Amino acid sequence: MADVLLVYKKNFEGIHDESLQAVKDVLNDLAETLRVDVRAREQVRRADFIGRDLVIVLGGDGTLTSISHNIDSNTPVMGVNSHPRSEDPNGSYGFYMDSDIDTFATDLQTALKGEAIINRLPRLQATIETTSGNRIRSDPAMNDLLIANTHQYAPSKYHLRRGDIDIEQHSSGLLFSTWLGQGAWFNQIARKSKLGNVEQSDSHYLVIARDLDADVDDETYLSWTDKTTVITSDMHRGYVVPDGWDEYQFNRGATITVDISGPVLQLLTFRNTMKERFNRD
User: Fold this and answer.
1) Do residues 49 and 168 share a domain?
2) Tell me, what's the pLDDT at 36?
3) What's the start-to-end Cα distance of the chain, in Å?
4) N or C: which terminus of the chain carries fewer CB neighbours within 10 A?
């Protein structure tokens, strides 16, 4: 009997309620072969994900990114778009959600049989070392990770080291992105697309010092790299924000190390790989 967790977006909109009921109906039909727990995104905890054979996320990309840090690298997860933009311009694009209500029953069977496409997505992670020697690891980020001054009206001041680079920078913050994640926020900052390449997407990541001209050909400001980035804060207070959710604060003198060695996310798709979806979209 497979142990399944269903996490859904709770916002009291009719379309999401209808989608939730449709998914529950499919799962109820398989009650003899599945053990299913259902949790609202706002109520889920890390312990809810432990030991699951499958995690189903019903909603949009924001629903997935908001709970993905709870999912370890051994647990397969499938995304189900509860309100596709293809059916309603106000719906969710759902880049990571390869299933929808119409295909869910078939896709679920494919997943349970072990026949789905397994995408092992690399994730960014930051380690903060305080001046007192404490070490804090951020949640892994499947899209992007921001390091900036908590006071957005003040510049982010830091010493940056990466490979042969060793400089002082003042910017409005550093934005890091996975190759797939550049389709989220990074391109809005960089004002250009298709940075990096698919062959290196499991080992490299993107980084930009925000508010600088993205066309500048200088790796101190814009880089596609497999090197670890290390900054030493010269800010009274800054923070690390993975995927736009939890904030990890640090003070002047703290050292923050960022790389792409976070635990991978095992995302299931059913028609194309995520790399194929990225190139298509």
Assistant:
1) no
2) 96
3) 37
4) C
Structure-model confidence comparison of residues 213 and 51, the more confident one: 51
Which pLDDT belongs to residue 281?
63
Q: Are residues 87 and 153 in the same domain?
A: no
Q: How far apart are CA 36 and CA 28, in angstroms?
A: 9
d(CA 45, CA 47): 5
Rounding to the nearest 10 degrees, give the CA dihedral for residues 144, 149, 155, 156: -60
Tell me: do 180 and 95 sit in the same domain.
no
pLDDT digits (tens, 9 = 90+) for 120-144: 999 999 999 999 999 999 999 999 9
Q: Return the closest-CA partner of residue 60 out of 112, 9, 4.
A: 9
CA 5 to chain CA centroid, nearest Å: 19
Flag whether 101 is in a domain.
yes
DSSP state of 9: -
Residues 251, 144, single domain; the answer is: yes
Residue 39 in this model has a pLDDT that exceeds 80: yes
For residue 27, give the CATH number of its domain: 3.40.50.10330
Domain containing 171 equals 123-262
Over residues 170-186, the pLDDT tens digits come to 998 999 999 999 877 77
- pLDDT of 76 reads 97
Q: How far apart are CA 73 and CA 91, in angstroms?
A: 29
